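Entry 12.
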Amino acid sequence: MRIATLLVALSVALIGLSARADEVATAQAVIRAQEQAFVRDDASAAYSYAAPAIKEIFPAPEIFMSMVQNGYAPVYRHKSFEFGESKVEGSWIAQRVHIVDANGEAWEALYTLEQQADGSYKITGCTLLKAGQAV
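Predicted 3D structure (tokens):
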């Protein structure tokens, strides 16, 4: 009986981990799609991955793109862009990204995403620090 209970508990835990892994994969796909839109200079596509609160601050794709170009150069143009640790908390996901910018300098980005009413994930923010800087 104990073994059956243990197997049920393990199965439930693995299903939860699998669902979380799917959520993280979905969030990473959103971040990657936006990153690729930046590479193509596709302001409309990049903007489409921003959460409603971001769109309130930057009410047009061109304004959003200008902000990224000026304030997030390592995100906009880089040599490498690799996913690190992630954390799922309810409808929120935090995703670290290791970036090497166009000049070869290392950066750490922390993206936050929130699940929307339609089930999609949108980017709610990105904090960018030079690698090795304290938060």
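Annotation: The radius of gyration is 18 Å. The beta strands are 78-89, 92-101, 106-115, 121-130.
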